[in-house]
Design a protein that fits this description.
The complex is a heterodimer of chains A (564) and B (757).
Chain A: H1 2-20, H2 23-53, E1 60-66, E2 72-86, H3 87-92, E3 103-110, H4 114-117, E4 121-125, E5 129-133, E6 139-143, E7 149-158, E8 161-165, H5 168-214, H6 220-251, E9 254-259, E10 265-269, E11 273-277, H7 284-300, E12 303-304, E13 309-310, H8 313-344, H9 349-361, H10 366-389, H11 404-429, H12 432-440, H13 445-474, H14 477-482, H15 509-519, H16 523-563
Antiparallel strand pairs in A: 1-2, 1-5, 2-3, 3-4, 6-7, 6-11, 7-8, 7-9, 9-10, 12-13
Chain B: H1 5-58, E1 66-74, E2 83-88, E3 94-99, E4 103-108, E5 114-119, E6 128-133, E7 140-145, E8 149-160, E9 167-173, E10 181-182, E11 190-197, E12 201-208, E13 213-220, E14 230-237, E15 244-249, E16 255-260, E17 264-269, E18 277-283, E19 291-296, E20 303-307, E21 312-319, E22 325-333, E23 340-345, E24 351-356, E25 360-365, E26 370-376, E27 382-387, E28 393-398, E29 402-409, H2 417-421, E30 436-437, E31 448-449, H3 452-483, H4 486-498, H5 504-521, H6 523-546, H7 549-554, H8 560-577, H9 579-586, H10 591-599, H11 608-632, H12 636-644, H13 649-678, H14 681-686, H15 704-711, H16 720-756
Antiparallel strand pairs in B: 1-29, 2-3, 3-4, 4-5, 6-7, 7-8, 8-9, 8-10, 11-12, 12-13, 13-14, 15-16, 16-17, 17-18, 19-20, 20-21, 21-22, 23-24, 24-25, 25-26, 27-28, 28-29, 30-31
Classes of the chains: A alpha+beta (564), B alpha+beta (757).
């Protein structure tokens, strides 16, 4: 009894001591670090899991749903999410369900068939579901319009006549989808590439003509050559048009007949089908193959359905293109400015002020650069360029409108401080002895710079450039003002001379995330794609940053060796 | 010994070559020096240019208006007649003068040459007793006659382009038929008149010489076959006791104001033409002063009252809580020195001009509550003023019948210090407010450019972000730099720093689409985490302290952080999973309803809490990294000295290290703040972007940066809206530049201090 009391007092005492020692505060600081790390890791894990799981074929559930006491429907769908809801909230929403527990599980089902039911997704309450099963025969069709279709395959029709029915129809369906797919890509090639090129050249001819008009050039030869060329192009256009008519007839040949969950029978033309699969019947290996196929489609295909389906190739292409252009602008200017500040400028209060100012510019909000880019580059420079060099296109602006050139210039300005600071740091790390050695051997200052200093500082420049690229790749706010669009009709690089079209607008990964996630009409359907896009962007940026860190560390090691 | 000639020449050539080579090298060197200097200075100038360009675009906002006199000529047409009205067309090429004898003279505005002279087809032998002009953009005028009738006219300008040149041909038309309209069946002279003609309704109001106030309403009957017939309604209104001096009728023919000789204004509701109603009468000027001018501002909501004492005030009907309208004085403007003779509103903005008996001429803007220009333009009293529809030219006629023609440069009168930053009483509102509403479909709309709500939103977002980020980042930095094992530090620091490079668009997307619904669902759990987490960690730490030494030795000192990771995950998971039961027990199953019903707090799904967490997350790496460097850089002999004197590590830290490194921590916070203030994508995506002035954590906000991002692409180049957005960008630029410079200066000083120690 007594010793117990003693123990108690001891414990009290030790708790007080423990507090006095300050170690609880240490633990709290440790908790802050741990929380930060958990958040970082959790965020990456969240993006990765949600992004990567999107491509995995989800089993499709078939069940009876008792919508009300008197109405039961047969539903087919993928379970996309589940949550438990307090009963009170359900009652407030007008649900009349009764239950013993205080909360109820509900599922978010992707039921597809938007053309028939109006909505892709619906919430269902678990207690109202019965007869849940996952039959092999249930089929998912990815379509070019109206999202996914869920149902059972009935038959295949060719030119309106049923050719295959029942189980045999499935294999035939796959073959026929492959056939229409081939025709589809042919059509797309003609429409996009061939007709696109003709349209482009026709537009050029129109501008040439207008140019002659403005310049008061009435040379009959020139006019004749223009109309000759136009006639040739129009003839070729007619030929392609005929070919297209033929192809469209071909692609419309096959139609599949399918039954939805409610029992409605619908015809789906194969020309609208991207792929059809039976997720419940797939083996693990098949699922893996399917996953790889979808992943490849994601990075190599163009978007469908207002960017909510398909791939993100144009966005990847646009981002890369813009970043390359930006690097071309930012590297020389950044390096020259750094070399000037470090090697040529007289070190004093002025250079110190400039250095602080440059440093601070890295902290200026990116939207401010966007505003500057819009006002100065787009409206002022672009507008003037249009007046001088493209009067024939006016009042339609050529460069006086947001485009990839202005975007890359704006981002070059934005990332200039990064390159300057990194290069300067690299230059300052080069030991004086090396410079002096070179000068002592009779080299001029320029030669020393060019042959010794700059090569040694090149990894630092690389670091700066990589960091700049990482920043530019993730920046969205300024781009929204100076050139990015949700859907670019044509890439800034194509096969029409002069191949590089700097005035064009482009798509960008970051903006794609913003646009699809927030401006899309069907956010729920698009969400997994946004996660996948985010994952890609995060991976690229983390990889770039890690590279920069590795280069920097390598550099430090190298000079440490030199100095000793 | 002789040197062979050939050798000599070779050596010579070599030497020559060498010199040339050396000269070339020197040239190259100089060239490099100059080009690098030019390039470097160029880049620096380009950077500086950003700031100057922003300022250059915003400057016109604050430039005062100016007048440029281009011509003066005697009033064209009949010299004996008195001008009743002057007007100009869109291009300010042609002016028009209506005289009291019914003559209409179109003339070239810049030299007074008569283009055409039309007699307004008034019946013969009938005197003109009054004149009125409708809303300026409708170009309708009316003569009141001494037999109780009124003639309504419209001046129209046809623009054609013969031979690529603009040709404007003026003409007169009679919108309500050629014959004068009978306003007073008793045939008394109309001494005051007001008219408005719309698409298919028209209203005339007149005061007769026997103090009656009469209303004539016309409505076009709907007919598919022909133009439709005008049906008329005649009513008599309750006239004020004193003789009426002015009548004005608003654009949509719903409200009527009549001023009388005793300085009172009667406000009539004439929505129902057959039963007009006198709402009430107010004294609009001081006792003994008369109302000398009465005009609507564009849009037909506000009326401007000019007094014989030179006073100018703005009035409009304000709705009270019982839905009754009372005509209220909104603001008073700088008075003129003599009686106000003429007030002219601009066509599409809320600006107006006023001129007085002593030749004084002022330009005002009502929303900005400012006097944009102040001048004396004549020795005589100013009789008539006319402004071009684009507010870029002005005609002024004085008592000596001289017309002066001015070009007006008044691009952005709606901006003043008070309209940007103070509460403004906008038309149609019942009290002064801070509002940002830049655009609307209607042309007569009063733009609301108050930067206060969006600046407030910026600070609010930054505040919540910093509230979340500062404790985590600073405490984390303390632990990482001072207690953490070096091996773990090498891992932790870069991984937190990499987060700095994470695109904010991703954070914004997650905040908007994942975090916001998550928080909404688990609100009680998340708030309980604030208490449970520190308590749980301390509890765990204490238990760990009491754990057997064997177990404790498994985790070396400096690895507490790693040990805590599973603990924190567990605690968080527990807090989230008890969230729903808590909601059930304490908040009747629905916390949102509880908040709005019981607490009166409005709950937005995308609120400040979401922004605070997401933006805090974005700022943590910035603050962490700089603060960590500062603490880590505290010279080791300081801490060792303190420890040697017997202080515990925590005492050393709190009394020595933190104090020494506090400037560095301060600069870290400043830089973090700069980043939070300027962040765009997170706020854009994680808030509703409504510019509200409410500090509630459950409501959203609109920030300067998001505002610029949303509205900039739609702003017309050079418009006030465009320049105000540039101003917002300049404010952002200046604010962040200030924060960053403060931080940088502090940091440099600190670096010097450390090297001295």
């Amino acid at each position: 009894m007594n010793s117990n009391k003693q123990d108690h007092r001891d414990m009290n005492h030790s708790a007080k001591n423990w507090f006095k020692s300050g170690s609880p505060w240490v633990w709290l600081t440790a908790a802050a670090v741990s929380a930060s790390i958990i958040m970082v890791a959790g965020l990456l894990a969240l993006i990765a899991v949600r992004g990567l799981s999107h491509f995995w074929p989800t089993p499709v559930m078939v069940a009876d749903y008792h919508e009300s006491d008197t109405r039961t429907v047969h539903i087919i769908g993928e379970i996309r999410d589940s949550e438990s809801v307090p009963l009170a909230r359900l009652h407030a929403n007008g649900e009349t369900i009764k239950s013993d527990s205080e909360s109820i599980t509900r599922y978010l089902l992707r039921v597809g068939n938007r053309d028939i039911q109006g909505l892709d997704f619906r919430w269902v309450l678990k207690p109202k579901l019965s007869q849940q099963h996952y039959p092999d025969a249930v089929m998912v069709i990815e379509r070019r319009e109206w999202g996914n279709f869920y149902g059972h395959l009935q038959a295949i029709k060719e030119d309106g006549k049923v050719v295959k029915e029942g189980d045999r129809a499935w294999d035939a369906l796959q073959q026929r989808i492959a056939r229409t797919q081939k025709i589809f890509s042919e059509i797309r090639e003609i429409e996009k590439d061939d007709i696109g090129a003709i349209n482009y050249r026709l537009e050029r001819l129109r501008l040439d003509e207008r140019h002659m008009e403005i310049a008061n050039n009435n040379d009959a030869d020139d006019r004749a050559s223009i109309s000759r060329e136009r006639a040739v192009l129009q003839a070729r256009y007619k030929g392609l048009q005929q070919k297209l008519v033929q192809l469209y007839a071909d692609i419309g040949r096959d139609v599949l007949v399918a039954k939805t969950g409610e029992g409605r029978v619908v015809d789906i033309p194969l020309s609208k089908v991207v792929r059809a699969y039976r997720p419940n019947a797939m083996s693990f290996l098949k699922k893996c193959l399917f996953y790889a196929e979808k992943l490849w489609e994601f990075v190599s295909d163009e978007p469908r359905e207002a960017n909510t389906e398909g791939g993100i190739l144009p966005a990847i292409f646009g981002t890369v293109m813009m970043v390359i252009l930006m690097s071309i602008f930012v590297t020389p200017f950044g390096v020259v400015a750094a070399v000037y500040l470090r090697e040529y400028a007289k070190q004093g209060p002025l250079t110190r002020t400039i250095r602080i100012a440059v440093n601070n510019l890295a902290g200026v909000p990116s939207i401010v650069y966007g505003v500057f880019g819009l006002g100065f580059f787009v409206y002022f420079l672009g507008g003037s360029l249009d007046q001088l060099f493209y009067p024939e296109a006016l009042p339609a602006p050529t460069f006086g409108t947001p485009g990839i050139l202005w975007s890359s210039l704006t981002l070059a300005l934005l990332t200039l401080p990064v390159v300057i600071v990194a290069t300067e740091e690299g230059l300052s790390r080069i030991p004086k002895s090396i410079r002096e050695g070179s000068l002592a051997l009779g080299a001029t200052k320029a030669e020393t710079l060019w042959r010794t200093v700059l090569p040694m500082a090149s990894p630092a420049m690389m670091t700066g450039l990589i960091l700049a690229i990482a920043r530019a790749a993730g920046e969205v706010a300024p781009l929204m003002l100076v050139g990015v669009v949700k859907l670019a009709p044509s890439l800034p690089l194509d096969t029409n001379a002069p191949f590089l079209h700097l005035e064009r607008k482009f798509m960008h990964l970051g903006f794609h995330i913003y646009d699809v996630g927030f401006q899309s009409p069907n956010v729920e359907a698009a969400r997994p794609l946004v996660y996948a896009t985010s994952l890609l962007l995060v991976l690229v940026i983390i990889a770039l940053n890690l590279t920069a860190i590795a280069v920097r560390n390598h550099l430090r090691e190298k000079y440490r060796a030199l100095e000793s | 010994m002789t040197i062979p000639a050939q050798d000599t020449s070779e050596a010579l050539q070599k030497a020559l070559h060498n010199t040339r080579h050396r000269r070339l090298r020197a040239l190259k060197d100089r060239f490099a020096q100059w080009s690098i200097a030019a390039g470097g200075v160029g880049v620096i100038i380009a950077i500086v240019l950003i700031f100057f360009y922003l300022v250059w675009v915003t400057l016109p906002l604050f430039q005062p208006a100016s007048l440029h006199k281009t011509a003066q000529y005697p009033a064209p047409g009949d010299a004996d007649a008195v001008t009743r009205y002057l007007a100009m067309e869109e291009q300010h090429e042609i002016g028009v003068r209506f005289t009291d004898r019914g003559q209409v003279v179109f003339f070239a505005a810049n030299n007074g040459k008569i283009i055409s002279q039309v007699n307004s087809k008034l019946p013969k032998n009938i005197g003109i007793t009054s004149f009125t002009a409708g809303a300026p953009n409708k170009a309708t005028v009316a003569y009141g006659l001494d037999d109780g009738r009124a003639q309504v006219l419209r001046h129209v300008y046809d623009v054609t382009f013969p031979g690529d040149h603009r040709l404007i041909t003026p003409r007169l038309e009679n919108p309500l038929g050629d014959a004068p309209l009978v306003v007073d069946p008793k045939k008394h002279p109309l001494v005051q008149l007001a008219v408005q003609v719309g698409e298919d309704t028209a209203t005339l109001v007149a005061a007769t010489d026997d103090h009656r106030l009469l209303l004539l309403g016309l409505e076009k009957s709907e007919s598919l076959l022909d133009d439709g017939e005008w049906t008329t309604t005649r009513t008599e209104l309750q006239a004020p006791a004193a003789p009426i001096t002015h009548i004005i009728l608003n654009l949509d023919q719903r409200e009527l104001y009549a001023a009388d000789q005793e300085g009172r204004i009667s406000f009539y509701d004439i929505r129902d033409k057959s039963a007009p109603r006198l709402v009430h009468t107010v004294a609009a000027v001081r006792d003994g002063v008369q109302i000398s001018a009465l005009q609507f501002l564009s849009g037909g909501i506000s009326i401007m009252v000019g007094g014989s004492d030179g006073s100018l005030s703005q009035w409009f009907p304000v709705r009270d809580s019982h839905n009754n309208y009372t005509l209220s004085a909104i603001r008073r403007f700088d008075p003129l020195t003599g009686p106000v003779t003429s007030i002219t509103p601009e066509f599409s903005r809320k600006g107006f001009m006023a001129a007085g008996q002593r030749g004084q001429f002022n330009i005002y803007h009502s929303t900005a509550h400012s006097t944009v220009l102040r001048k004396t333009l004549s020795k005589y009293s100013v009789n008539q003023l006319a402004i071009a529809p684009r507010a870029n030219a002005l005609l002024l006629e004085d008592a000596s019948q001289q017309i002066q023609f001015y070009l007006v440069d008044n691009e952005h009168p709606e901006i003043s210090w008070s309209s940007l930053w103070s509460k403004v009483w906008y038309e149609g509102y019942d009290a002064p407010q801070y509002l940002w509403q830049s655009s609307s479909a209607s042309n007569d709309y009063e733009p609301k450019f108050s930067l206060t709500p969006i600046t407030f939103g910026t600070l609010k977002a930054a505040f919540y972000a910093m509230l979340f980020a500062i404790p985590l980042a600073i405490l984390g930095a303390i632990y990482t730099s001072y207690f953490m094992a070096p091996r773990m530090r090498r891992l932790v620091k870069p991984s937190i720093e990499i987060m700095e490079a994470l695109p904010t668009v991703i954070l914004g997307f997650l905040a908007g689409l994942w975090l916001a619904p998550f928080l909404e669902k688990h609100l009680p759990g998340v708030f309980s985490l604030l208490i449970i987490l520190p308590v749980g960690v301390l509890l765990f730490a204490y238990l760990w302290q009491c754990a057997p030494k064997l177990l404790r030795d498994c985790v070396p000192e400096g690895w507490e952080g790693a040990l805590l990771i599973p603990v924190i995950i567990l605690i968080s998971w527990a807090a989230i999973s008890i969230s729903q039961p808590m909601e059930q027990w304490f908040f009747q199953g629905d916390i949102r309803k509880w908040l709005s019903n019981d607490m009166g707090i409005q709950f937005d799904q995308r609120n400040s809490l979401v922004v605070g967490l997401a933006m805090g997350f974005a700022v943590i790496p910035t603050i962490f990294s700089i603060a960590e460097d500062a603490i880590f850089g505290v010279p080791k002999h300081l801490t060792q000295g303190s420890l040697a004197l017997g202080a515990t590590p925590w005492q050393t830290l709190s009394r020595v290290v933190i104090l020494t490194a506090s400037p560095g921590i301060f600069s870290a916070i400043m830089i973090g703040l700069g980043r939070a203030v300027g962040e765009t994508m997170i706020v854009l995506m994680a808030t509703g972007n409504t510019p509200v002035m409410d500090f509630s954590i459950f409501q959203g906000m609109r920030t300067l940066s998001a505002n610029v991002a949303v509205e900039m692409p739609e702003a017309e180049v050079g418009s006030t809206h465009y320049r105000v957005l540039f101003l917002a960008a300049t404010v952002l630029f200046a604010a962040t530049f200030l924060f960053n410079t403060a931080a940088e200066v502090v940091r440099q000083r600190l670096r010097k201090k450390y090297s001295n120690l």
